[in-house]
Amino acid sequence: LNLERNFISRLDFSLPNNIEVLLLAENNITRFFNIPPSNVKTFTLSRNPWQCDCNTLPFRKWIIAHNSEILDVNETRCSFEEDRESLRGKVIITLSEIELCPKLIRNYNLMVAEVSVILIMTVTFILLCFRYRYHIRVWLYSRGLRCLKKRSERHVGKLFDAYISLSDEDASEARKHFLPVLELKHPFYKLFVPQRDIKTGNFEIDNLMRRMLDCKRTVFLLTKNYLENEFCMEIFRVAFENSLEEKWHRIILVKYGPLPPLKEMDQSLKTVMVSSRCLKFGDKLFWDMLRYEMSEKRPDTSIDYELQDDSSDDVPLVQEF
């Protein structure tokens, strides 16, 4: 079907199915509004005032896909009256998408910016999650997500949830602000406190170690008084050695006040403080972190707890080593 030189400006391709050749050169066609039928195998398209803009992209794609069927594909050009001077008379098949539609650059830049922002936010989120993974686990655990913590069979048969190691000078403060929170509030831990639960005269190291082995965890309330007490430090060193022999992390360190520089501390204490987490009493998540470090406990037990008179503080509860 030869339709050349007929001043055609629009074509809807309502053609008989037996047409295989369609000659459209030298008309006034500015663009195709639909796809030519597949039965047409040969075209001529040159010397038409083809509009070249963003709407021409589908036409360009079709030309590239059917360039072998277009006899004058290298002469199919943009209109010489095109608004953009850079496109006037240009062969359409040689133009890039950006040349036809410059706003694609803005779209690409916007897409790149959006992807970059999403990537940066994702990486930042991952880094923050990694950096604060412990605090996240603690927070989730405090909200009831217990599956984040592994249960140990070594806890079975232990009489106490924790052994509390502290100096005599700090006993009164601990009885008021530390022990009641653990023993009187959910989940009601059962604690062993030597100054309270051992009769005077039974403070030999071996006896304390046996008591410590009856506990799931050993909590050391670290203060300046504790570090200066040789008997307390000997208890810590023996507990540390037992922990290494058992290959079981049962020690929980709590900074219960200002401490001297790390370099001035006992070597075994320094090793534990460097290799494990040391909780700081008074921090925002302190109690949640301490409960997370403690062994899993069902809220089905409680113990009677009474504050002792302050007058008892005058009597040493642990003899100097």
TrEMBL record:
Keywords: Leucine-rich repeat, Membrane, Signal, Transmembrane, Transmembrane helix. The keyword DNA-binding does not apply. Residues 158-294 form the TIR domain. Its main location: membrane. SUPFAM superfamilies: L domain-like (SSF52058), Toll/Interleukin receptor TIR domain (SSF52200). GO terms for biological process: innate immune response; signal transduction. The chain crosses the membrane at residues 108-130. GO terms for cellular component: plasma membrane. The keyword rRNA processing does not apply. One of its GO terms (molecular function) is signaling receptor activity. It is a single-pass membrane protein. PANTHER family: PROTEIN TOLL-RELATED, TOLL-LIKE RECEPTOR. This is Protein toll. It comes from Parasteatoda tepidariorum.
